[in-house]
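Methods — Computational structure assignment.
A single polypeptide chain was analysed. Its primary sequence is given first, followed by the predicted tertiary structure written as structure tokens.
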Amino acid sequence: MFSSRFSYLIFFSVIILLGFNTYAQSTIFEKCGFDHKHDLHLQDTSYQKLIQSSENRLNSYLATPRTRSSNNIYTIPVVVHVLHLGESVGVGTNISDAQIQSAITNLNDVYRGQTANSPVDFEIEFALAQQDPNCLAHNGINRVNASSVPNYLSGGVDYYNDGGEADEDVLKDLSRWPETEYFNIWIVSEIENNNGGFGIQGYANFFTGSAYEGSVMMATVFGYDPTNLQPSFNLNAPRDNSTVVHEIGHYLHLHHTFKGDGDADNNGIGDACPGDVTIGVDSDGCSDTEPHKRYTSQCKSGSLNDCTGAIFND
């Protein structure tokens, strides 16, 4: 029964998000690993069917005009699995409880419309789980020394499945709660041997109820401290939790707004405009976002949109 409730919880959270152009779609693009993973999963026919079924449900629901409620707040239970390298709590990759809580707090501020970049209340909240799968009291944070997993100490998680880093599923199996009852977030030391800095900072997949789903994020992006009031937090600049906000948007079934622009050379700049260039049928699935290519800068407000021939509509 609880698994069914969780599925409906995610479904209605998705419905709410798809009604708006969200902050989660508009942050820095080149550091997100969603597209590659999504395309890889689409080679699996069972995943294709799950995605198609989800999108059919969404389209059917959205086709019926409804009054948006202001009374229902959907709270998604989160479990954070810190896959550290053997450090003490609060040191290096074994990030502190306070840093983790700062990420969750900021996430809620964004999705509840409490920040300048996200003035809309999506009526969605995230909370660290208070019970484990056996109904025992828990703080929603698991800590596992993953340094013994082959290649993890030297390269982190294997994103491209090239065998040079630690196998993703092996890492997740160290600590994984039922994906139909919790949103699993795995905190890792590196992604594809990026030394905790450049390249892919995190990724997530659409919620389908399949095994191993959730989000993988580097320790150095999971937390909020833009003014550096907490120097003990292991965060890279800009210390603003934007990667977390962005990736969780993908978990809630949001594509990138530039979906379909191509990036064959993987330089973070779109090669062409999406094939469907009419607002309302844009390939990202949100009718209020105009078609555009990805850019290396965060915001092109006030600039010419190559795909529409007009100034970007904020």
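Note: Helices lie at 2-18, 34-41, 45-62, 97-111, 152-155, 168-173, 242-251.
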